[in-house]
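Job type: complex structure
Entries:
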Amino acid sequence: VDQLLQHIVNALILGGTYALLGIGLTLIFGIMRVVNFTHGELYAFGAYMMYLWVMLAGANFYLALLLAVLLGVALGALIELVLLRRLAGADIDTTMLVMIGAWIAMQNLEQFTWSGVAKSINTPFSSTPLVLGPISVSWNRLFVFVVASALIIATHALINRSKLGKAMRATFQDRETAALMGVQIHRVHTATFAIGSGLAAAAGALLGPVFVAYPSMGDLASLKAFAVVILGGLGSIPGATIGGFILAFMEELGAGYVSSGFRDGMGFLLIIGILLLKPTGLFAQRERIG
Amino acid sequence: VKRLSTLALWAVLLSVPWWLSSLYVLHVLIMTGIFMIAAMSLNLLLGYTGQLSLGHVAFFGIGAYTSSLVSLGFTVHLLPNWAVTLEPKPVWFGMLMGILMAALCGWVIGKISFKVRGAYFVIVSVSFAEVVRLVALNWLELTQGPMALNNIPVLRLGVPGSFEFAFLRKPANYYLVLLVGSLAYLLIARLVHSRAGRAMIALRENEPLAASVGIDVTRYLVLATLVSAGIAGAAGTLYAHYVRIVDPDVFSFIYTVTMVIMVISGGKGTLLGPIVGGLIFGLLPEVLRAFSIQPELQWVIYGVLMILIVYFLPAGIVPAVRHGWRGEKAAAPPTAAATPAGVR
């Protein structure tokens, strides 16, 4: 039972960052109809920015985190403006191919810039973990969980309360009608992609110091984000939030009780299972064929 | 004229090992040919049914692993005290099994995943390839995991002992790849010009309309996946018995991307597209290496080229050239067909 409790706590902490990744991806797909293959590269970008500011520039850890997220937002806006703006109205396969091209270029540029050697990032947290009875949690992971939860809540508030959020929801429901009602679709797209990218960069910046930063870290992040999004239903933000936690639980329990080699495979088994049983995902209402 | 140029092309293709002195270049041609076959099989799905399979390398790898394992033999414990042993079998039999196994996987994946389309199918296919890679990496008893399968035998034909021919040297392998490639080309050409092929194109263009005139959409999609997976598996078996070492890296996503680039640059939905695209992107790494460009930058160039092709040649090289050639000949004004097909 103690072991199970520990697994549950680990899963909760990991789930927060998976949810961050998933929300960004599902936001971009729901509003822009773009399958964002660069999502994982934004995640890696966040981790490398932490490395750059903390380890190379010697900046304050919290300041570096803020900078990493803001730079992720800026990079996302840049990708949207340069690559996607001119493809507005193109079919989904065309944008997908462009995003795959961008993904390959970005990942190899990362490898070229930072070399293939994994980089570790120092944190200001004490290395003695917080022990609560049978459970122990490192302070760093606790911090990750708190920040991730705050970002998830902030995103929900942004979508549901702000004016920009209203424009995003309107675009999600019906792009043409929203445009007729005076919503600046282009600006909504740029904002959406920037926010989604910022969330991915935040996830990378948070997890980079927990693990290490390496060039292909984005691949797994992308695939996990896809798993989370399929689980919750494409375009559903509550779905992505819960999907993130479900994936983390499956991984923790799979790694703990089956085989640690299959930890990263759980997500894919989950996707295949979901598509067999309930192809619309757990939380999407709309029909997905068409 | 067309007949003559076809004959000339065949003469060139068949005579390559005679006038090409560099064995290294021949090796590059063999590898390019193997990936061209894989790209041709991807084109059947991507170009003719319009479904983007980003897990295509899974079929390639399954073909390679199955063929190697059947010809090497193996013992696995499915339960702690229940082992299954397979004695080594002849290589041609292994290759056949590799193709069948890949086709079977294609059929299963098609059955499962064509409940969904578009973005969902893409993600399912990626996930499938990743699961297969993890199995290859972790099922040590069967696949040796990262230690790789070594000393894979080469293909031998004929009667053992008396008259036997081994595909050991590069020219022999070149002809083997050429033969399999031609067969794959013929099979795909026959298929897309048949009733089934017209059904596939119909559902690529307008699925609800195709369904409404009575085309069984899922059946044709599954058929296309089965054939496509089988051909990709054939390419995988050629790879295994030519390179003679197979490790989980054959499932690398980058191979799928290479195939996708070959298809879209050459022209998806054309028979010649994957061949032209395959030739360009099979030889490009060697050209870039000659300019001593690092591999990371080579992939950056690939990525950027892919984006540029989608922007400026959305239909691919073959349709663009064909269009330009016809346009010049007839001096016809540009028609509606000149609008990029990819941007609708």
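Summary: Residues 2-32 of chain A form the longest helix (31 residues). The longest strand of chain A covers residues 130-132.
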